[in-house]
Specification:
The complex is a heterodimer of chains A (288) and B (277). With 288 residues, chain A is mainly alpha-helical. Chain A folds into two domains: 1-52, no CATH class; 57-287, MetI-like (MetI-like fold). Chain A has helices at 2-5, 23-52, 57-65, 67-100, 106-113, 115-118, 121-132, 140-145, 154-165, 167-180, 183-190, 195-206, 208-224, 227-233, 243-252, 256-287. Chain A is globular. Chain B is an all-alpha fold and 277 residues long. Helices cover 78% and strands 0% of the residues of chain B. Chain B is built from 13 helices and no strands. Chain B has a single domain, classed as MetI-like fold (Orthogonal Bundle), CATH 1.10.3720.10. At the A-B interface, helix 2, helix 4, helix 5, helix 6 and helix 7 of A face helix 1, helix 3, helix 4, helix 5 and helix 6 of B.
Amino acid sequence: MEGNTRFRIFRPPKTNSATNEPIYIRFLLILIMFIFFILFLLMPLITVFYEAFKHGFSMYLNALKDPFACDAIILTLSIASISVPLNLIFGLATAWLITKFDFYGKSLLVTFLDLPFAVSPVIAGLLFVLLFSPTHGWFSDILRFFDIRLIFALPGMVIATTFVTLPFIARELIPAMQARGNQEEYAAITLGASGWKTFFNVTLPNVKGALFYGIVLCNARAMGEFGAVSVVSGNIKGKTSTIPLYIETLYMEYKTQAAFALSSLLTLLALFTLFIKKCIEFSYKKRI
Amino acid sequence: MSNKRQRILPGFHLTLGICLTYLTLLVFIPLSTIFIRSSGLGWESFWRAITSPQVIASYKVTFGISFLASLTNAFFGFIAAWVLSRYRFPGHGFFDSIVDLPFALPTAVAGISLTALYSQNGWIGQFLYPLGIKSAYSLIGIYIALTFVGFPFVVRTLQPVIEGLDREIEEAGASLGASRWKVFWKIVFPSLLPALFTGYALAFARAIGEYGSVIFISGNMPMRTEITPLVIVKFLENYQYQQATAVACVMLVISFLILLIINALQHWSVLIGQAKN
C-alpha cells in the first residue's frame, strides 16, 4: 500500500474521491505552493551559494582564509561550545521536570519557557546591557571594582546567546518524552534501578533522536544569532565579531562576495539541521 | 496538592532547582530590569519617550507590516500545510523539509540574501522594478523579510492538526450530499481555525521582534522604513538608555499579551478537540 501510493502523483494516500478535491483544484494548490516556495525559500537559498561562488572558488577560499573571518569563526565556535552545553543541562532538567511530575504551576512554567522566544532579540541584548553595562548597568559598581568586563566581551555574548536559545532543546525533548509515557521509567525504578541509571539507560535512549535534533537546532541558532549578540558585543572587528556580525561588517563595506562566502557556512549548517530533522522524522515513522 | 501524593520517579527537587535557577538568572531578573528601569523614569518622561514621532512612525511600520506579512503567511501557509499533509507529489519530502529553512537560517544571512534577490539588479527585483514595485529598501522589502521569517510557524502549527482530522466526518458530510466545497467550509475549516489563529499569532509575534533580516532590506530611513527594534538599537548607540528601555518595555508588554493570546488559543483548540470526542 505504502509503496504504491508514492507513485500516484497528486493523490493523497488511503482516500477516496468523496473526501478529496477535484484534480484541477489539487493541481492549482500545489502550483501556488511551488511558486511561493520558489520565490521565498528556494531562491534565497540558491542566491547565497551563487553570490559566494560568483568570482570563482579561489575567491571563495580567500574570503574564508581572511584572518578576521577566522577570528569570527573561532569566536562563534567558542560561544556555541559554552551556550549549547548550558542549554543542554537546562533542556534535560526541564523536560524531566515537566514530563515526569505533576505540580502546581506547571502550565505557567511551560509558558515561561516560551518567553525568550517571544522577546525580540534586540530586547534580549538590551536586558543584559542594562544589567552589566560598565556605565549604565545595575552591577556597574561591582563590575568596575573587580575590573570585570561582561558586556562588549565574550561572557556577555555567551549569556545573550544562551538566553535566546534557551527553549530549543527543552521544546524538542518535552513532546518526545510525553509521547513515550512514563511506564518504562516506572518499571526500571520498580526493578531497583537508581534515578540516574533510569535516566541514562531508559529515558535518554528513547528520546535520542529528539535530543540530537534539539542540540543541532540549538547549535545552529546559537551560531547564527545576530540581534542579541550585536547589541551586547559592540562588534569589535577581530575581537567580539561573530560570523553573523562579521557578515554584516563585510556587507556594509560592499564586500558582498566575502559576506556571502561566510554566509554559505551558516547556510550549510542550517541545511544540515533540516536534514537531521528529516532523518529523525523518517526513523520515527518507520518505528510506528 | 501534589505534596500529598508520593512521587514515583526521583529527581523532582533537582530538576526543579536547575530549571528555576536558570529561569531566574537568565529570564526573570533580566526581564524585571526593564520594568524597574522604566518605572524609575517617571510617567511623563516614559510617555514622552514612547510617543516621540520617530517611535510612533516605527510602531506603524512594525505593526502594520507584521500584520500584512502574517496575513500573507496565514494564506499561503494554509495552502502549503494542506498540500503537504494531504497530497503526495514528486519532491514532497524536500518541500516539507525546506519549510523550516527560515527557522534554521541565521537572520543576517536571510537579510543579505533577500536583499540581493529583491534589489534592482537581483534575480527577482529586475522584474519588479520596471513594474514600479520597489522591492528593496522600502516597506515592500520589510514585508518580504517578515513574510520569510514567519512562514514556518503557520505551516508547522496547522500540519499536525490537518493530519489529525478525522476523515470519516468528511465522508459523512459527502455521503449526506454536501459538495466538497461545502464540506471544507462547514466541517474542515472551522476545526482548523484555532490552529490557524495560533500560527498567525506566532508569525506575528516573531515578525514584530525581527531585526536581523529586516535591517538589510529596509533601507532604514528614519520616519519611513525604520522598525521599532532598530529604533531601540539606535537609542542604545547614542547612549539614550532611558528611551531604549521605555520603548523596549512597550514591545515586551505587547509580546507578553500575544503569548497569553496564543495560550488561550491553544486552550480553545483543546476544548474543540474534547467537544468532538
